[in-house]
Amino acid sequence: MRDMPDCFSAAMTGALAMLVSVPIVSAAPPHHEEHDSDAHHAEELFPDEPAPLKLDTFPERPKPLLELGPDFLGPGEIGEGITLPTGAVWQPSLLVFGQYRSAIQTFDTGEETFTEWANTLDIFANLQLSGTERVLFGMRPLEDEGEFIGYNFNPDEDEGWQNDFSERITSLYFEGEFGEIFPGLDPGDRHSLDWGFSVGRQPIFFQEGMLINDTLDAIGITRNTVLFDGGSDWRTTFLWAWDDIDRNNNRESREANLFGVFNEIDVPLSTINVDVVWVDDHDGDTDGIFFGASAVQRIGTISTAFRILNSSSLHEDSAAVSDGTLLFSEVSWTPHHTHDIVYVNAFLGLDEFSSAARDPLADGPLGRVGLVYEAVGLGRYGAPLGNRPDESLGVAVGYQMFMDDNRRQITFEVGGRNDINDTDRGALAAAVSVQQALGRNTIIRSDAFAAAHEHDAPGWGIRFEVLIKF
């Protein structure tokens, strides 16, 4: 417009003014019927009265076995609570909850058959003090060092009742966050006081249980939400465990100390974990250094996870610690027009990888691979293909189906493993697992498998379990 004559610019300005003004001057009065219709339509879209909650498909509030104080997930007014000298406000509530498992199962290794009725009970008391502070107490009275209350049918020499009650405390710890306990130190939340901590007997689980899967007497300190260029979050945990440390052979080492640094980093395309653990055994030559790194991400529509773990004995190899490396991968996706999951998991064990700490019920580190490598953690029912990675490679391919509004799951799986040192330990197995929810608190699970072992007799197993949550 700058290069046009001034008269042309003036003419254009006048024309635009006419176009703008004409509709206003000549506009006819609105029809009341159309106006009323539009107003009614708008009222339907944006009603003045709030719509009622649609509770017909919403589950009822879960009611714990015992609750004192404000209702768990319940409606109502929030009380004033107790103001501590630090400025924190605590609103104590006590919840008692747990789960009971009971199974009839038979397991044939190819050499011997085990048939049993096994039971276990986990019961917890959770004293919730605030949104970040709590004390948790837990016991497992029907299990004692891997022996469960029930009845053994086979083998004949073990037939009889098992009365292995236990008074051992399985969990007792306090956890909280420094910045929430002392809010007066940073009322504007501008400083880096996001330090979480926990102290006491607590479950510790890293690298999907392959590096550590145990209950330890420990103190952990976590630095949350460290921001950095190129990522959204970095969390670091420092851990020291001084007692109740079960080594790779699932046996407790009473003189060991465990030290670890665990890092989780969110970057644009992945979540990265890098962990280092040192176990110092004052009562033997079983010191070791352990390392784990993983990357979890989606590649297109495919979910993937890749892990590498390593263990190094600082003395001679033993059942508690040995030199070795474990490579592990998970790949899964959802077929089109379904809610089901297809997965392909694989591992490669070089030498004899050992975990830093493993609970007696956790058995070996390969349970994550699939059903044919999983220990059920109840009785003597073992993993069809074992779950130790020593000098071997293996794979599991499965299809998990979801039915009845996700209240029923059926998983079919085939898997195999072979040695890499010419010891003829090859094996194949197929397994199926069915889980069905009954009501709101009960799950029924049935499992079966068949396995063929190179140069050994075939194995098989079948089990039926009832799980009740309360």
Task: Note the main attributes of this structure.
single chain, 470 residues, mainly beta, 18-stranded antiparallel β-barrel, two-stranded antiparallel sheet, 3 helices
Explained architecture:
With 470 residues, the protein is mainly beta. Among the domains are: 6-45, no CATH class; 363-470. Helices cover 8% and strands 50% of the residues. It is built from three helices and 27 strands. It has helices spanning 6-26, 32-45, 178-181, and strands at residues 66-68, 82-83, 89-90, 93-108, 113-128, 134-139, 143-144, 147-154, 160-162, 169-177, 195-206, 212-223, 233-243, 245-246, 252-253, 256-267, 270-281, 288-299, 302-313, 324-333, 341-351, 357-358, 392-403, 408-419, 427-438, 442-453, 459-469. The protein has an 18-stranded antiparallel β-barrel. Strands 2-3 form a two-stranded antiparallel sheet. Strands 14-15 form a two-stranded antiparallel ribbon. A hairpin with a 2-residue loop joins strand 16 (256-267) and strand 17. It is globular and about 75 Å long. It starts with 5 loop residues before the first helix and ends with a strand. The model is unreliable at 1-35 (pLDDT under 50).
